[in-house]
Amino acid sequence: MNMEPIVKRFYTSLEEGKMMGRKCKRCGVVEFPPVIACNGCSCTDMEWVEISGKATMFDFVLPGVMSTRPDNEFLQPYCYGCVELEEGAKFNAIVCGVTKKTKKDIVPRLPVPIKARIVQKDGYKTVVFDLVKE
Ligand SMILES: [Zn+2]
Questions:
Q1: Greater pLDDT, 120 or 69
Q2: DSSP β-bridge partners for residue 113
């Protein structure tokens, strides 16, 4: 199996404003960002599903001086969050709106609701998350 068409479809969908994951036909696990084989059962029989973008942030770290990437500068302030989609996929992602100042308010409330957003980067689109105001 070749990962290239999967990656291509993922980015093409983002251009159309859709966030697509891959759902395993055998065990129902949804993988996002999409992968070739299911991490639940290693099955490669997967289908495309649009994800809602609703997610939860369980934990996060603020970027250190060394881990701040210039191409993410426009997203400031942000943190690196441990994220779980309502569809079940877990991964690390950029979550915007978290600062040193708001960190102490957010930590006692973890996990907190977040929502995915498509952003334009240099030549391609990608997915980041925003805190959902309660
Ligand atoms: Zn599976």
A1: 120
A2: 56
Q: Among 112, 117, 116, 115, which Cα is nearest to 102's?
A: 112
CATH number of the domain that residue 118 is part of: 2.40.50
Same domain? For 41 and 20 the reply is: yes
Same domain, 58 and 26: no
Rounded distance between C-alpha atoms, residue 84 and residue 116, angstroms? 11
The rounded Å distance from CA 89 to ligand 1 centre is 12
**Residue 6 belongs to what domain range?**
1-51
Distance 44 CA to ligand 1 centre (A): 8
Q: Are 109 and 62 contained in the same domain? A: yes
pTM comes to 0.92
The b/e string for 52-69 (b: 16+ C-beta within 10 A; e otherwise) is: ebebbbeebeebeeeeee
How far, in Å, from the CA of 92 to the mean position of ligand 1? 21
